[in-house]
Amino acid sequence: MALINFEGNDPWLLEYDACERLFREIMEQLTLRDREPRTSQTFAHLSANIRIRMKKYSGEVRQLKIKVEEASRQRNITAEEAERRTRQVEQLQSKDVQIQRLFDSRRNEMASSRAGLMAPSSSAFADIGTTSWGIDDDDDQPLDIQVSVTDLKSEQKRLLEEQEQGLEELSKVISRQKQIAHTIHSEVDLHNEIIDDLADHVDRTDERLIQGTRSVQSISEKDRTWGYWIIIIILLISIVVVSLIK
pLDDT per residue over 61-113, tens digit each? Predict the structure, then answer.
């Protein structure tokens, strides 16, 4: 198994740092864009740059995920390192969903404003006896309004698809976090069982030590008693011998 490079030269870690920097750049540009009027050229220019950087960010995050899976499958990194890098990639995916929502929220505001401007007032047209600009009267609408409505529908459909994709990615991340939580819970239960077994072994060892101490004390007391009996017997023999001599 290859050793993990902790010297800061690991290509994966360098790419991860690059993704982090790119995320910060996108957030800074989003902040700058929100300060500009929606109809200004600066706003449009920043939006185009942000869109390009977002695509680049999503692609780099996918590449990081693929490289982690390949390294884990080929056992070029330890299981713990693979788990840590997987969590880092999931954080990058969450940030991807975050910037996508921030970008789309402003675009949704613009779409709502455009829809409000294009929506006709029924009372105004009723006064002059003309037909209102409803979606169902496409044939009576001017060509530029029909194109705007079609573009708006296409844009809304695309935004909904992107939001669904973002929610799907977020759901995968949440499922992954839930799986990690279950794994940690299982590990904690296993460690608790091991600790309980160790406690039982310690209790049994304490009981054996207590019994052994009592046995030693009993043997020691018996040894002292035998000494007293020997002295008594010697004294009796001495008395008998002295009596016979007299």
Answer: 999 999 998 988 888 889 899 899 999 999 999 999 988 888 887 666 655 55
Architecture of the domain defined by 11-116+140-176: Orthogonal Bundle (1.10)
Domain ranges of the chain: 11-116+140-176
Q: CB–CB of 15/57 below 8 Å?
A: no
